[in-house]
Amino acid sequence: MRRQEEFPVSKGYLTVYLSLSLALILSFILTFVEGARMSVIRMEAECVADIGMNSVLAEFHRELLEQYDLLFVDMSYGTASRRPENSAEHLRVYMKNNFSGEHTSLFSVRDWLALSVDKAVVGELSIASDDGGNVMKRQALEYMEHASAEGILARVIGMAGETKALELDTRDIDGERDSIQEQIDAIELPKKRDEDGNLVEISLNNPADKVNSSRGGMTLRKVIGDMSQISRTAIYQEDYISHREKITGIGIQPGLQAPSGVTDDLLFDCYLFDKCGWYGNELDKSLLKYQIEYIIAGKDSDIENLETVIKRLVRWREVANIIYIFSDSAKCMEAQIVALALSAVLLVPELAELVKYSILFAWAYVESLEDVKCLMQGGRIPLMKTSADWKTGIANIIGFSGTASDIGGGGHGLSYEDYLRIMLFLEKSETKNMRAMDIMEMDIRLTPGNMYFCMDSCFDSYLADISISSAFGYHCDIKKRYGYH
């Protein structure tokens, strides 16, 4: 028989080699898959956290944006519960829904990540009322960035500077007038016998006395006359942010600058005039009709706020009119003639100069009432007058009825709105911020579903502390700050 050729037997060795190789390759593949899973878990956790945090910010308060162009999230969500936990729960739900999205295909798809939210905490809120209301003010200034207000800013700065220079708010005209009256009262007048034979002092009949006796009472009634159209709306101030205990946060969100300086104050004033009403420019949507007057005066009713502003305005006009009338030689002569006549009749010449000044003070006051009535009727009055701008004569002092006459509007100079702008500019910044937020709360509570609305429930940035875990044993923590900027 033919001898068969011998070959080496290697089939067993190949099987063992292939088994070892496949095990090694499979371990590499599984390691890569697991590494990919870990990377995808981190990436998806980050993405879902971003989506959830943006979704919380997407729940900004619609009425606050519509009425005041401010972007804030109300953590109460229309309820009486004002807690950051409410927003944290919204964040958790948004993230949970994104992690557990339902698959609607015909094929079963296994979730290779199996992520869930262990913790979602919302903290370090930047609340609207923080830093004396500067968080709210910063957003208002951003809204006003593109407003054309340069002309108004320069004008108000100039008018406010002139107001301070003239000491309209600080001059003690009451003290000056009282001092003159005390000197008049100290002079003994001649006496005569009455019907009963008793000696009585002859009356001076100073026309200024009638004017001075009418200085008490409501100034608003003297310049308005008919009070039937004046709003009688009143509020309970303790319900609003400027008078109640506030929820506090961290202030202006990190990286942003707080409002400061004259320009920011004036721009914010322009914002308030853009969003609020005042006498002669009332808004239908508002609770208080004289909102600018409220921000200036801070009283608990429309009528008190308007009265406070009008009284201050009359005082401003009185100081300015005194400055002018003392410099007008013709008017000083008219007052002196009347004073000389009275002192001559009584044979008391030392009264002449004192009576003259008392008449000038009374004349300036009567002119001031006329000025303010003109302003309330839509007219204009310059800060400092000339002889051409003066309206009343000395006969108006003698026949003064206690109220301003109906002279109508017209004229030139500053309007009622201009005088309000000066008063608003002179008010403290924090006071304006807080009272402005009072107004926002009042108006938004009038809208459906917002009866519990509070500005210190509103935030524009927050820090989220999130913990996420996977059913495959992985865990990651995420801490991020999101806000409207």
Question: What topology does this entry show?
Answer:
Elements: H1 11-57, H2 62-68, E1 73-74, H3 84-99, E2 115-123, H4 130-143, H5 150-165, H6 173-186, E3 191-193, E4 199-201, H7 207-213, H8 219-224, H9 261-275, H10 291-297, H11 302-327, H12 329-346, H13 351-376, H14 394-398, H15 416-426, H16 429-444, E5 458-459, E6 461-470, E7 475-483
Antiparallel strand pairs: 1-5, 2-6, 3-4, 6-7
Helical amount: 40-55%
Number of helices: 16
**What would you report as the Rg, rounded to the nearest angstrom?**
39 Å
Structural class: mainly alpha
Q: Cα distance, first to last residue?
A: 98 Å
The overall strand count is 7
Model regions low in confidence, pLDDT < 50 over at least 5 residues = 103-109
Query: What strand line-up does the widest sheet have?
Result: 2-6-7
- Order of helices and strands, N to C? HHEHEHHHEEHHHHHHHHHHEEE
